[in-house]
Specification:
The complex is a heterodimer of chains A (630) and B (166). Chain A is α/β, with parallel strands linked by helices and 630 residues long. Chain A contains 25 helices and 18 strands. In chain A, the strands form 5 sheets. Chain A has a 5-stranded mixed beta sheet, sandwiched between helices. In chain A, strands 13-12-16-14-15 form a 5-stranded mixed beta sheet, with helices on both faces. In chain A, α8 runs antiparallel to α9, α18 (474-488) runs antiparallel to α19 (494-511) and α20 (517-533) crosses α22 (544-552). Chain B has helices spanning 2-9, 12-20, 28-39, 44-54, 58-67, 87-91, 94-105, 148-165; strands at residues 79-84, 119-124, 136-138, 141-143. The chains are: A alpha/beta (630), B alpha+beta (166).
Chain lengths: 630, 166
């Protein structure tokens, strides 16, 4: 049986003998930017100088710990992917961004051997140009409340001792040795923890339903099929702190009396699959997972299943079908998985972020956990902030934070079409991916939580948050989401299969200039029907992006169907005909052939076309002798 | 072509894979994943062979193989290029890159593999690297914040390597 206290003390003793700790981010984003090469060069450069270096601090080594000059780890995603590869040097707390192998010599010389800063590698505020030393000062981090993500990017995901040293697995130990199943369900109900995967259902209540079922075999399933385009917090947690997910699953298993678990990860996340597999193996080797957990006589083992590319498998009943080796189609509820789930047995399905928060709730206690967030949505939520915003990345904020704070403060402002920060260019935030809705300027100050968003036709969903500037066409965006959901519709129920197709065709008509006012009416009607009558969450939420854009950007739809004009010029078929003022000689020929009088201009001066009047008959284009009109 | 290909492998690999997953019907998805890893697609003969070995109908197996987008019943090209068209990539201009690549390789949304079997170009919904949008994956190497020009350069690089090795 593992002695957690001993592992912690031993690890901390070893850690104290290390003078410097260097963390290189090894999340998917930073690896894409070359962080693995940075890691290797740094390791070699340190070793070349004859410094003692270690890349894996073992705690089980009870013999005298060796002193190291540098302790280097590759961490999981730190959330600030845009400035990657990231290198952190502790204890000074220096954060360097955009590090390249050629910077390594200087880093070793100045910041590892000495404590000097290298100005050019520091993070600079894009507006003021001010340089920040590290996480403790950069506004992107200081305005967040990292709870579930706290250890991501700080711990070595492949070193269980470090996780334990940071208090990991102590909650699982308590759950198996000091709590009854009933106590656990009660504790989590009181904490108010709600599912972070989209539904927002009470975690404790879900467990209680499964606990009440009398069955020898029960399952805990971790839903890591994070399919919403634009959301990547689950990937980040699985890559950066896989042990927190395992610990969350252990506590869930203890709460419902399950002895087997599955982690379902999408195959687009190869690194997350590798890390969680490794972490499970290590936890088994240490005796944390196994047949006699913490001497309680209870057993729990976890399997990993890789998805095969079907968005609908994020729906819990579809996910279970997929684990059973079937087509991943959803089933009607009831029976709920808590009654009849995987292989017909009672099953609890929690999302990755929820499970990662489970040990945190126990560590902090209910009161502290509830101290952040709103009364009905306690705690924090991770959002993936992307799109036209200065700082893209993963952010964790308390529920109740406003979009204004997220986009303009943490996000550093909106980027206009030229890539410059200009908050006037803000147009909308699409929240909750293809299942969510658009929020506009008027919603900037609404405190975000499960209930407030539901009330305005959006949803927290998985937490994808895509900022859009005024060069984005909302009709085109709605069409984009509908293409996605239509493609991913599994085809089982008619409303979703046929309804999403009809809606997509109508949207295509609108962006191609073939829509009429009647199309908009039909679109609205079809959307509402699909929403009410579909079998699973995919169909029920698929119309959201359309309905919310119809509600908040009606004028834009109307411009497409009435004036046949796309105000942002994003829809190619509706891009207005224009006259190049450089080439136009002012011969007035076009003005005379225009059947609707859309062209104005004086002789020998450049002419202009009024796009709202123009019917795109093309008469002027063929008349112009100077090819000035296109 | 696939008949000779599979025969050359004389199903040994498939047998190994089936054994590894205990010939269990519930492991159909991991079995097909492992087979596709081996052959780069799911050859028809292999599919029939697996169905017989598992004691399920070929239709059951095809049902699974056609449901999930990861499985391919067609051989794929030597180099696989994937462009992310997730939301973040879409609003940051992935469409222009997709158009440029399709034009360069003479492919469409329906025809995804070049006639010389050199390239397969697919769009994927989200790779979870949204901070780097738009994202292009060329033979498993991720390129962030790509422009159409950079994407074409990446193809030129492969072309140059192929010429060198020819």
């Amino acid at each position: 049986m593992p002695d957690l206290n001993k592992i912690r003390e031993s690890y901390n003793a070893a850690r104290e003998l290390c003078k410097k700790r260097v963390v290189v981010c090894a999340g998917t984003g930073c690896i894409a930017n070359g962080s693995l090469q940075v890691f290797e060069s740094l390791k070699n450069a340190v070793a070349l100088r004859g410094l003692e270096i270690t890349v894996s601090l073992k705690s089980d080594d009870t013999s005298a710990h060796k002193a190291h000059d540098v302790y280097m780890i590759g961490s999981g995603c730190q959330g600030f992917c845009q400035v990657g590869p990231l290198v952190t040097i502790e204890p000074a707390g220096i954060l360097y961004g955009h590090v390249k192998p050629e910077d390594i010599e200087e880093i070793v010389e100045k910041s590892i051997i000495n404590d000097d800063l290298i100005e050019r590698l520091l993070y600079h505020d894009p507006v003021s140009g001010k340089a920040y030393k590290g996480n403790a000062e950069i506004p992107f981090y200081t305005r967040q409340s990292r709870t579930g993500l706290k250890e991501c990017g700080h711990v070595d995901p492949e070193n269980i001792s470090e996780y334990i040293a940071h208090g990991g697995y102590f909650s699982a130990e308590a759950a198996y040795t000091r709590y009854s199943s009933q106590d656990l369900c009660k504790l989590y109900k009181e904490s108010g923890l709600r599912g972070r995967g989209g539904g927002g259902f009470s975690t404790g209540l879900k467990w209680e339903f499964a606990l009440k079922e009398d069955n020898e075999k029960k399952y805990v399933v971790c839903n890591g099929d994070e399919g919403d385009p634009g959301a990547f917090m689950d990937r980040s947690i699985l890559e950066g702190n896989p042990h927190s997910v395992i610990e969350g699953m252990m506590i869930a298993a203890r709460a419902i009396g399950a002895d087997e678990g599955y982690v379902y990860v999408r195959m687009e996340y190869p690194l997350a699959c590798t890390r969680i597999r490794k972490a499970i193996q290590v936890a088994e080797d240490c005796g944390i997972l196994g047949d006699d957990i913490f001497g309680s006589g209870k057993k729990f083992r976890i399997n990993v299943m890789e998805g095969a590319g079907a968005f609908v498998c994020g729906e819990e009943t579809a996910l279970l079908s997929s684990i059973e080796g079937k087509r991943g189609m959803p089933n009607p509820k009831p029976p709920f998985p808590a009654q009849k789930g995987l292989f017909g047995k009672p099953t609890v399905i929690n999302n990755v972020e929820t499970l990662a928060l489970v040990p945190v709730v126990m560590q902090q206690g209910v009161d502290k956990f509830r101290s952040l967030g709103t009364p009905k949505s306690p705690g924090t939520k991770t959002f993936a902030l992307t799109g036209h915003v200065a700082n893209t990345g993963l952010i964790e904020v308390p529920f109740g934070t406003t979009i204004r704070e997220i986009v303009f403060e943490i996000g550093g402002g909106v980027l206009d079409k030229d890539g410059k920060i200009n908050n006037d260019a803000f147009k909308a935030v699409q929240i909750g991916g293809p299942s969510g809705g658009c929020l506009t300027r008027e919603h900037l100050d609404i405190p975000l939580d499960f209930d407030s968003l539901g009330a305005i036709g959006a949803m927290v969903g998985s937490g994808g948050m895509v900022v859009m500037n005024d060069s984005t066409c909302m009709v085109e965006t709605a069409r984009y989401f509908m293409t996605f959901t239509q493609h991913e519709s599994c085809g089982k129920c008619v409303p979703c299969r046929e309804g999403t197709r009809q809606m997509l065709e109508m949207l295509e008509d609108v962006v191609n200039g073939d829509g009429t006012e009647e199309t908009l009416e039909l679109l609205q009607e079809a959307g509402e029907a699909v929403k009410i009558t579909s079998l699973c969450g995919l169909g029920k939420s698929a119309p959201n992006p359309v309905l919310s854009t119809l509600r908040y950007f009606r004028d834009e739809y109307e411009a497409h169907v009435k004036a046949k004009y796309c105000p942002t010029r994003a829809c190619k078929a509706l891009t207005p005909i224009s006259i190049d003022p450089q080439t136009c000689r002012g011969c007035t020929l076009c003005k005379r052939v225009c059947p609707v009088g859309a062209i104005s201009g004086e002789v020998k001066q450049a002419h202009v076309i009024d796009p709202l009047v123009c019917i795109k008959c093309g008469a002027c284009v063929s008349t112009c002798k100077f090819k000035a009109i296109s | 072509m696939s008949a000779t290909y599979a025969a050359a492998h004389s199903f040994n690999k498939v047998m190994e894979i089936l054994d590894r997953f205990e010939r269990s019907e519930t492991k159909i998805i991991p079995i097909l994943q492992a087979v596709q890893e081996e052959y780069r697609y799911l050859p028809q003969e292999v599919m029939t062979f697996i169905a017989t070995s598992l004691g399920v109908s070929p239709a059951r197996l095809y049902g699974v193989a056609t449901f999930y987008s990861h499985f391919s019943l067609e051989p794929k090209g030597k180099h696989i290029i994937k462009m992310c068209d997730g939301t973040a990539c879409h609003v940051r201009g992935s469409s222009a890159v997709i158009d440029a690549i399709r034009k360069r390789l003479n492919l469409t949304a329906k025809k995804i593999t070049t006639d010389d079997m050199m390239y397969t170009f697919e769009t994927v919904s989200c790779l979870g690297a949204c901070g780097l949008a738009p994202v292009l994956v060329v033979d498993d190497a991720i390129h962030g914040q790509v422009t159409p020009e950079q994407a074409l350069d990446a193809i030129e690089k492969i072309e140059a390597e192929e010429r060198e090795n020819a």
